[in-house]
Task: structure prediction
Amino acid sequence: MPIYEYICQKCGERLEELQKINDKELVDCPFCKSPSLKKLVSAAGFKLKGTGWYQTDFKNSGTKKSCNEKSTEPKCCGNCACKKDKAKE
Result:
């Protein structure tokens, strides 16, 4: 369940509330009891960093490219002439 942030337009108090997505927005301020709460837009509380899930699970569509096709990945498949050229060096 997401955490929503509210501010009271009358008394200025802020609060966070754990609610289901389908729950109605809060209206009544628990501090001054006025029906003047407004939902705020907040930044997400997490960041995706590193290679992790994207590199291993979702990046490829399931088809493999041959070495003579354009590839965005820097690694060679190991079954082409470029591997043999590197071995000569």
